[in-house]
Structures
1.
Amino acid sequence: MRQNMNNENQFVVDLLMTLREENFSPLGWWRFLARSWNMSRQTAHNHPPLQRSWRNVTGLIALLAVSVLVVCFVFEGGVNTLRILPGFLFCVVWQQSDLYWHLGLNRHTRTGTLLPTVGVANVLTWLRALGASFLLGRLIGGLSTPSWLALSVFLYGVATDILDGQAARRTDTQSKLGQIGDAEADFSLYLALTIILIQNAVLPSWLGLLMLLRFFIPLLFALGSYFIGTRPVRFGSTIWGKYAGLAQCLYFLILLAPAQLTFITHYVNLPVLIATLILLFVAPVAQIMANVRA
């Protein structure tokens, strides 16, 4: 099993070396993406239970996406639903394609064994991504999102974020797929919420940009390390990243809290903001150092 994983890693390195030798030309990118896609299809073809699991998850996500659109139609009307549809549909199709593309990463983080199914933990992660897709669909469609709705989706996202980690540990299915999916879902959700809070004049633009840099700086460094340096990329958050995520989560909850809780949020707003700003500086540095050591 380790030999198979090493062979796949070497294949990826060869792809990256070829891309770099072709100076990242359009033709080089086309070959890189085509061979990567063929590798993903081969992984799915060679592991029918995993492919069947992906189809089941995709069916579940599709059913829930249709349900979301029906609810939107009932409460917001056909015009607003049609405005949500293009962006929402694009994000959902993208997230399921991304899951298929990375099925080869569904390996146990400790043993390197390819897991036979997507697993409950990853399903919870992709459900959080569905909530993020809904908010992004509203943004792309030019619709405003009231704070109560943003708070509801956020709480739903926080719940799945807690449960997916617990599910992975209880079922012993921690995987690289789960790590990268968790990071992508968190980024999408916080991106949507940050823009919504800025639109609703609750969060200053400079602070929102600073919060997003927590994700962008390590991402850009990792992409440079991956494509230019052909170095392995460390998936998963550092302990400082977890603290920063917790602080940012608390601060967003304070900003989205109902007006009836102002007597509490008024006193905790500033201390939580200061802690968040400090951790937002420390977390990207820790993530970059972790990738350097990888």
2.
Amino acid sequence: MAASQTTQLAVAAREVSNSRETRRLRRAGSVPGIVYGGGSDPQAIAVEERALRLALAHAGAVLELSIDGADATPVVLKDAQHHPVDGETLHIDFLRVRLDRAIQAMVPLELFGIEDSPGVDEGGVLEQITRELSVEALPTEIPDAIRHDVSALELNDTLTLEAITAPAGVTLLDDLQETVIATLSVPRLAPEPEEIEEETELVGEDGEPLAEGEAPPEGEEGGGPAEAKSDGEGGGDGGGDSSSEG
């Protein structure tokens, strides 16, 4: 559905300040931002957080922005930065537009009828690849979202952009045949980890494993040095006896 109505939003002009002043502004319940484009100089602004939230919730693509009570200017929200934890809006960018000139925008793509599709009924899982579409239209014709029925998808089907019908006055800018919207396939089973057999090996003095049948170095099995010493002592005694007999 296109956004044919506009929403008023009152903001205040502000001086570009350092990060300390920006944090103070947020603590006071306001959101810093900037308005640019339309052939005019950029203007730093501040808007009350609650008013901004309500305006964006009820607005279409276009907002009528009034700075310090001046005549309203049509703008579109170009970017919004949010806190990664609590989702608080940290900064906003508005772009001035002319209502008689087409603009480009990103529009959410919503798929419905998933549970009714034959592929899902057969055990398949739908994976949505593309969640936003690049479109071109007059500012008041930019839709809040584009919705598409996937209740007819079969198992192993691939949905591309050429199957999506854009609202009247809206042009889809992405490649119709190459842009994959969603796939419906049987989920892959994760392979079971292979069991690792542990083996205890004898190693030599250099740390390398011994070949099968190879004797370990002296001192690694009982009796090696003791037997050698015993043989040496026996030989000495024998020599003494022989000398005595002589």
3.
Amino acid sequence: MAEDAYVLKSGKFEIKIPKDLHYSEHNSWAELENSSIRVGVSDFFQILLGDITFVELPSLGEFIQSSKEIGSVESIKAVLDIYSPISGKVIGINPKVQESPDIVNRSPYEQGWLLQIEPTNLGKDLERLLNAERYLEYVKSQIEEERKRRAEKEKILEENP
């Protein structure tokens, strides 16, 4: 994976978005590696969750579909579902994530990848995914929506002490 990435600063966070990956609006990513695809969750996803304590993933040999739930990630704050960006057969599971789930917080794109997939519909799946520039714009819009929700909530609290 190239070191070239967009960096979005939001409050105390720096969100990294590598330029050589494909992204879904479910905050997962896909990286083409020879004839297979490496899949993980984005830096934005892990920041939303906070300290990750458990990751549930599909089994080796299982067939998964793009945009469908394939597992979940638990943190101290919440449990979020993971959605696959690519359809195919699971041919690898990152043992480091199973042993130490917080590796996803420390290294979501390198050491914290989740699955290796043998794709079944790669062309169509890649067409549906976002490039890094479009994903950056998507993340900016999500941050702005969250700011608006928080502002509305604060306004309601001020009006109703």
4.
Amino acid sequence: MIIALFSCDTGKKAIITAHPQIVEKPIIKDTKKAKNIIFMVGDGMGITQISSGMYSNDNKLNLERMRTIGLHKCYAYDDLITDSAAGATAFSSGIKTYNGAIGVGPDTLPVQTILEEAELRGMKTGMIATSTIDHATPASFAAHNMYRKNYEEIVLDYLNSGCEILIGGGQKSFDRREMDERNLTKEFVNKGYTVVSHVDKTISEINMTNVEKLLFYTADSSPLPVAQGRDYLKPASELSINHLNKNNDDGFFLLIEGSQIDWGGHANDANMIITEMIDFDNTIGAVLDFAEKDGNTLVIITADHETGGFAIQKGSKMNDLKTEFTSDYHTADLIPVFAFGPGEEDFNGIYENTELYHKMRAAFGWESKKKLD
């Protein structure tokens, strides 16, 4: 199959040979269905990122509490090396697409996401990221755009997403916009959101008693690395789970991204990878504490790709690693998938990244698709 695409930033035409879309929909078994799904993405988190966090944390991670492990093939529609946009769109919509695509297929047309279908089914939804909230991974669950860097266009889609929780950086895309003079902070308030900035409150200081929907800006642009003081991922996740689960018979879908593991890989900064991995794992611990008590929540933990070609080298000791990198970009490694809760058995094996979408729908017990008008 041949398809012609136009580069969003150069306008040049490129002819590429496309991979066929591979869809292997799981059979919905007569087993307990998940009421809630918490989908956690450690951006850029390959096996060595996990190993380095473990061996730098006294040889233990909360991730070891997961009972089911699989591997996914992370390549994009037209490239063996994926980016976060194509990877997250595969998770959210079950289709392979081109690098840079946000919730659109290879033809640039919108594809419905699992978060959008959850909203249509009356469920509550939320997204948390340690990047900007308009970055590629969260954007691919709640927006549709030809190009991942169209941040101000992406947040316009959030206005009508229905998400009850939006937590991440990037305030300037909302209230100091270059493409227009709209103040999206005010527009979100008019949509029923409580909007809070990190300048005024920390996540722990937010009282959710009378809050229906929350938009929390954790930074004006990109949040700091955890090593420089960022500390909101775990408390934000706990707050979001409690809010989405409260008085809720219909269930929820929550995306949690540890975004900056990837940034450490791009920077070839082993300490950043390790500290971000441990921060993500601390959040995993809190999520699993909830899931174990709740009994109705499926937790899935994976990555979109590995970043850096990261390796632990000869001469390493526990809590004192010698590391090297083969790249400052993404690699094509198979990516681990961890699952815990109702439906976890479907996540064993090796499969396409698109299968995570179909496996989540099966875990919810969704047979026919509920579509946007």
